[in-house]
Amino acid sequence: MSQGHRMNTFRMERGVALAQASSSHNSPVTLECPAWEVLTDLTVVKAATTTPHASLRDAEQTMIAHGVRMLFVSADGQCIEGLVTSTDLHGDRQVRLVQERGLRYDELSVADVMTPLGLMDAVDFDDLKTATVSDLIATLQRFGRHHMLVVQAPTHATPRRVRAVISRSQIERQLGTTIELTPIATSFSEINRALS
After folding, report:
1. What is the residue-wise DSSP string for 23-57?
2. In a designed cystine with 122, which of 33, 151, 160, 185 is the match (CB 3.0 to 4.6 A)?
3. pTM exceeds 0.85
4. Residue 103: which pLDDT band, with cuts at 50, 70 and 90?
5. Which conformational region is residue 28 in: left (phi greater than 0), alpha (psi within -120 to 50 degrees), or beta?
6. 3-class secondary structure, 109
7. In the chain, what are the domain boundaries?
Protein backbone atom coordinates (compact mmCIF):
# COMPACT_ATOMS: atom_id res chain seq x y z
CA MET A 1 0.00 0.00 0.00
CA SER A 2 1.33 3.46 -0.87
CA GLN A 3 2.06 5.85 1.95
CA GLY A 4 -0.16 8.97 1.74
CA HIS A 5 0.64 12.36 3.19
CA ARG A 6 -1.27 13.47 6.23
CA MET A 7 -3.44 16.48 5.58
CA ASN A 8 -3.47 19.47 7.89
CA THR A 9 -6.55 19.68 10.11
CA PHE A 10 -8.04 22.39 12.26
CA ARG A 11 -10.77 22.84 14.87
CA MET A 12 -13.88 24.58 13.73
CA GLU A 13 -15.27 27.61 15.48
CA ARG A 14 -18.86 28.47 16.12
CA GLY A 15 -20.75 29.97 13.17
CA VAL A 16 -19.64 27.55 10.45
CA ALA A 17 -22.56 27.14 8.04
CA LEU A 18 -23.66 24.06 6.14
CA ALA A 19 -23.12 24.28 2.38
CA GLN A 20 -26.37 24.39 0.42
CA ALA A 21 -26.83 23.07 -3.08
CA SER A 22 -26.89 26.01 -5.41
CA SER A 23 -29.56 26.02 -8.04
CA SER A 24 -29.41 27.76 -11.36
CA HIS A 25 -33.18 27.97 -10.94
CA ASN A 26 -32.83 31.09 -8.85
CA SER A 27 -31.36 33.36 -11.48
CA PRO A 28 -33.67 35.78 -13.28
CA VAL A 29 -34.47 35.08 -16.92
CA THR A 30 -36.15 36.82 -19.82
CA LEU A 31 -38.50 35.44 -22.44
CA GLU A 32 -35.61 35.21 -24.92
CA CYS A 33 -33.38 33.08 -22.65
CA PRO A 34 -32.70 29.46 -23.62
CA ALA A 35 -35.36 27.05 -22.35
CA TRP A 36 -32.79 25.03 -20.39
CA GLU A 37 -32.36 27.93 -17.95
CA VAL A 38 -35.78 27.23 -16.40
CA LEU A 39 -36.01 23.43 -16.59
CA THR A 40 -35.40 20.92 -13.85
CA ASP A 41 -32.85 18.53 -15.37
CA LEU A 42 -33.37 15.10 -13.81
CA THR A 43 -29.77 14.12 -14.52
CA VAL A 44 -28.76 16.86 -12.08
CA VAL A 45 -31.69 16.94 -9.61
CA LYS A 46 -33.04 13.65 -8.27
CA ALA A 47 -36.72 13.17 -9.13
CA ALA A 48 -39.09 13.04 -6.17
CA THR A 49 -41.29 9.95 -6.37
CA THR A 50 -44.12 8.15 -4.64
CA THR A 51 -45.99 4.91 -5.21
CA PRO A 52 -49.56 4.49 -6.49
CA HIS A 53 -50.55 2.93 -3.16
CA ALA A 54 -49.20 5.73 -0.97
CA SER A 55 -51.76 7.68 1.00
CA LEU A 56 -52.45 11.28 0.02
CA ARG A 57 -51.00 12.42 3.36
CA ASP A 58 -47.79 10.47 2.74
CA ALA A 59 -47.52 11.97 -0.75
CA GLU A 60 -47.99 15.45 0.70
CA GLN A 61 -45.28 14.83 3.29
CA THR A 62 -42.94 13.66 0.52
CA MET A 63 -43.64 16.89 -1.39
CA ILE A 64 -42.92 18.97 1.70
CA ALA A 65 -39.70 17.06 2.45
CA HIS A 66 -38.44 17.57 -1.13
CA GLY A 67 -39.74 21.14 -1.49
CA VAL A 68 -41.76 20.27 -4.60
CA ARG A 69 -45.39 20.38 -5.69
CA MET A 70 -45.27 17.37 -8.02
CA LEU A 71 -44.20 13.76 -7.62
CA PHE A 72 -43.57 11.07 -10.19
CA VAL A 73 -45.66 7.99 -9.47
CA SER A 74 -43.82 4.70 -9.88
CA ALA A 75 -44.42 1.26 -8.40
CA ASP A 76 -40.88 0.05 -9.08
CA GLY A 77 -38.90 3.30 -8.85
CA GLN A 78 -38.01 3.15 -12.56
CA CYS A 79 -41.04 3.18 -14.88
CA ILE A 80 -43.40 6.13 -14.55
CA GLU A 81 -47.10 5.40 -14.09
CA GLY A 82 -48.20 9.01 -13.71
CA LEU A 83 -47.84 12.28 -11.82
CA VAL A 84 -49.49 13.64 -8.73
CA THR A 85 -49.48 17.34 -7.86
CA SER A 86 -50.34 19.27 -4.72
CA THR A 87 -53.53 20.37 -6.49
CA ASP A 88 -54.48 16.71 -7.01
CA LEU A 89 -54.11 16.08 -3.28
CA HIS A 90 -56.54 18.82 -2.27
CA GLY A 91 -58.59 19.48 -5.39
CA ASP A 92 -62.17 18.85 -6.40
CA ARG A 93 -61.46 15.33 -7.62
CA GLN A 94 -60.47 13.95 -4.23
CA VAL A 95 -63.47 15.66 -2.60
CA ARG A 96 -65.81 14.02 -5.16
CA LEU A 97 -64.17 10.62 -4.65
CA VAL A 98 -64.64 10.87 -0.88
CA GLN A 99 -68.33 11.69 -1.37
CA GLU A 100 -68.99 9.15 -4.15
CA ARG A 101 -67.26 6.23 -2.46
CA GLY A 102 -68.26 7.10 1.07
CA LEU A 103 -64.62 7.13 2.14
CA ARG A 104 -62.48 9.28 4.36
CA TYR A 105 -59.66 11.36 2.90
CA ASP A 106 -57.16 9.05 4.63
CA GLU A 107 -58.50 6.09 2.67
CA LEU A 108 -57.66 7.55 -0.74
CA SER A 109 -54.39 6.64 -2.42
CA VAL A 110 -52.22 8.43 -4.96
CA ALA A 111 -53.61 6.13 -7.68
CA ASP A 112 -57.07 7.62 -7.04
CA VAL A 113 -56.05 11.20 -7.90
CA MET A 114 -52.90 11.01 -10.05
CA THR A 115 -52.72 11.90 -13.73
CA PRO A 116 -51.95 8.65 -15.57
CA LEU A 117 -49.03 8.47 -17.99
CA GLY A 118 -51.34 8.31 -21.01
CA LEU A 119 -52.82 11.74 -20.22
CA MET A 120 -49.52 13.57 -19.81
CA ASP A 121 -48.07 15.85 -22.46
CA ALA A 122 -44.37 15.74 -23.28
CA VAL A 123 -41.84 17.69 -25.32
CA ASP A 124 -38.97 16.03 -27.17
CA PHE A 125 -35.57 16.68 -25.62
CA ASP A 126 -33.99 17.55 -28.98
CA ASP A 127 -36.60 20.28 -29.59
CA LEU A 128 -35.21 22.21 -26.61
CA LYS A 129 -31.90 22.93 -28.33
CA THR A 130 -33.36 26.00 -29.99
CA ALA A 131 -36.34 26.68 -27.68
CA THR A 132 -36.66 29.79 -25.52
CA VAL A 133 -38.48 30.48 -22.25
CA SER A 134 -41.18 32.14 -24.35
CA ASP A 135 -41.62 28.89 -26.33
CA LEU A 136 -42.11 26.93 -23.10
CA ILE A 137 -44.74 29.37 -21.85
CA ALA A 138 -46.61 29.21 -25.16
CA THR A 139 -46.60 25.40 -24.96
CA LEU A 140 -47.88 25.36 -21.37
CA GLN A 141 -50.61 27.85 -22.30
CA ARG A 142 -51.60 25.90 -25.41
CA PHE A 143 -52.30 22.80 -23.30
CA GLY A 144 -53.36 24.58 -20.09
CA ARG A 145 -50.74 22.67 -18.08
CA HIS A 146 -48.80 23.55 -14.94
CA HIS A 147 -46.17 20.88 -15.68
CA MET A 148 -44.89 19.26 -18.83
CA LEU A 149 -42.30 16.54 -19.26
CA VAL A 150 -39.24 16.53 -21.49
CA VAL A 151 -38.55 13.07 -22.94
CA GLN A 152 -35.19 11.97 -24.29
CA ALA A 153 -34.95 9.31 -27.01
CA PRO A 154 -33.18 6.04 -26.14
CA THR A 155 -29.42 5.75 -26.65
CA HIS A 156 -27.06 2.76 -26.50
CA ALA A 157 -26.61 3.52 -22.77
CA THR A 158 -30.10 4.62 -21.66
CA PRO A 159 -33.73 3.75 -22.42
CA ARG A 160 -36.32 6.35 -23.47
CA ARG A 161 -36.61 8.48 -20.37
CA VAL A 162 -38.03 11.61 -18.84
CA ARG A 163 -35.03 13.92 -18.84
CA ALA A 164 -36.49 17.14 -17.44
CA VAL A 165 -39.59 18.85 -16.09
CA ILE A 166 -41.08 22.13 -17.28
CA SER A 167 -42.84 23.82 -14.36
CA ARG A 168 -45.05 26.87 -14.58
CA SER A 169 -44.16 27.90 -11.01
CA GLN A 170 -40.43 27.60 -11.72
CA ILE A 171 -40.73 29.81 -14.81
CA GLU A 172 -42.84 32.34 -12.90
CA ARG A 173 -40.26 32.48 -10.10
CA GLN A 174 -37.40 33.14 -12.49
CA LEU A 175 -39.33 35.57 -14.70
CA GLY A 176 -40.76 37.42 -11.72
CA THR A 177 -44.25 37.45 -13.23
CA THR A 178 -47.42 35.38 -13.34
CA ILE A 179 -48.25 33.14 -16.30
CA GLU A 180 -51.95 32.91 -17.08
CA LEU A 181 -53.20 29.42 -17.89
CA THR A 182 -56.64 28.12 -18.77
CA PRO A 183 -57.05 24.36 -18.19
CA ILE A 184 -57.89 22.65 -21.47
CA ALA A 185 -59.15 19.08 -21.90
CA THR A 186 -57.39 17.58 -24.91
CA SER A 187 -59.16 14.22 -25.03
CA PHE A 188 -62.50 12.60 -24.24
CA SER A 189 -60.95 10.75 -21.29
CA GLU A 190 -59.76 14.07 -19.80
CA ILE A 191 -63.23 15.56 -20.18
CA ASN A 192 -64.72 12.46 -18.58
CA ARG A 193 -62.14 12.62 -15.75
CA ALA A 194 -62.86 16.30 -15.13
CA LEU A 195 -66.59 15.56 -14.89
CA SER A 196 -66.21 12.55 -12.59
Report:
1. -GGGS---TTSBGGGG-EETTTSPPPEE-TTSBHH
2. 151
3. no
4. confident
5. beta
6. strand
7. 31-183
